From TrEMBL:
Keywords: DNA-binding, Transcription, Transcription regulation. This is Helix-turn-helix domain-containing protein. Coiled coil: none annotated. Residues 227-327 form the HTH araC/xylS-type domain. The keyword Transcription applies. Pfam families: AraC_binding_2, HTH_18. One of its GO terms (molecular function) is sequence-specific DNA binding. Gene3D superfamilies: Homeodomain-like. PROSITE patterns: HTH_ARAC_FAMILY_1 (PS00041), HTH_ARAC_FAMILY_2 (PS01124).
Length: 334
């Protein structure tokens, strides 16, 4: 990849129903969905004036597609599978709306808070609800061949409840929503790395659902453990007892293993805690809403003593906390 091509934006296909004549909208969206996920029979009471938007973002073998659309019935039949099967696992992060999925004689509910998953090689019927409320979701397509989890385990996980509000499910949800919000920050050269992140997180969600995280390859397990630890640190910055030892204990690992898995991160756990606390406090010092709040109060809120805060702040930013506050509040004055 040349330097010029590496700086190109991530490849994506955008569909907006407003760009298509009303009678053609539903057929065009069905065609896009067939190429994104797999060929399906689609039916909707809103087909005559179908209002939808979708962006399909290519991350190497993986695709991520945020979408919003009115209620639809999707059906993937055995005949369609025989005609074309991309052999993908699909995961939907449901942000708004819901419905029901029927396969193998079972009916499962889809709703925010729980991922919907399916397999392009299995017949399925998905009804997104009879109410007129729009569905808002982020879909993920991962080829079975690249998912770092034994096929028989992944197949067992599909269709099981997978919470998106805690644990590794929350990590994947946070990654997907942040990625979609910050899409313009990424370039074509980022695609392989981003695709690998999505693949590792999806595999870990599947494995966690089955309580079989020991089946993940070492690099996937190590990577998702680092992500869990970083999220834990973010959530517990205000606790003055947050130390590498406390982090290791919270994740049932030794401090030695904690330090080993952070070697490739370019920062130690202690330095990450200190840097993140300083960043939070630094932002609050420049906030005019907190102009009357004592500097030591801000430091304490982020788990820092007054002496430690002053010393670490000067070392990191080349000025005292009070100088930083004065500079930024002065610049904000009209």
């Amino acid at each position: 990849m040349t330097t010029a091509s590496a700086q190109q934006p991530l490849p994506s296909v955008v569909f907006s129903s407003l760009d298509v004549a009303a009678p053609e909208r539903f057929a065009r969206w069905r065609e896009l969905l067939g190429s994104t996920h797999a060929p399906m029979d689609l039916h909707s009471d809103h087909a005559a004036d179908f209002r939808a938007r979708q962006r399909v973002i290519g991350l190497g073998d993986v695709a991520v597609w945020p979408a919003a659309f009115p209620p639809v019935m999707f059906r993937r039949t055995a005949k369609l599978i025989r005609q074309s099967d991309p052999e993908n696992y699909h995961l939907s992060l449901m942000l708004r709306g819901g419905g029901a999925v029927t396969w193998h004689g079972r009916e499962l509910r889809t709703r925010p808070g729980v991922y919907h998953s399916n397999d392009s090689s299995r017949p399925v019927e998905i009804r997104t609800g009879a109410q007129p409320r729009r569905i808002v979701m982020i879909g993920v397509e991962v080829p079975k061949a690249v998912l770092p989890l034994p096929r028989q385990l992944a197949d067992r996980a599909v269709g099981l409840p997978m919470p998106d509000g805690h644990g590794v499910g929350a990590l994947l949800a946070q990654f997907l929503t942040q990625f979609v919000r910050s899409l313009t920050d990424y370039r074509l050269s980022d695609a392989p790395r981003l695709g690998a992140v999505v693949t590792d997180l999806v595999a870990t969600v599947f494995a966690h659902t089955l309580d079989r995280e020991n089946a993940l390859p070492p690099h996937t397990h190590r990577y998702t453990t680092v992500l869990r630890i970083k999220a834990f640190i973010q959530q517990n910055l205000a606790d003055p007892r947050l130390t590498p030892t406390a982090v290791a204990a919270a994740h049932n690992i030794s401090t030695g293993y904690l330090h080993r898995i952070f070697r490739d991160e370019g920062v130690t756990v202690a330095a990450l805690i200190r840097r993140t606390r300083l960043e939070r406090a630094r932002a609050e010092l420049a906030d005019p809403i907190r102009a009357g709040e004592h500097i030591h109060t801000i430091a304490a809120r982020w788990g820092l003593t007054a002496a430690e805060f002053s010393r670490s702040f000067r070392a990191a930013y080349g000025m005292t906390p009070s100088d930083h506050r004065h500079l930024h509040l002065h610049l904000r004055r009209p």
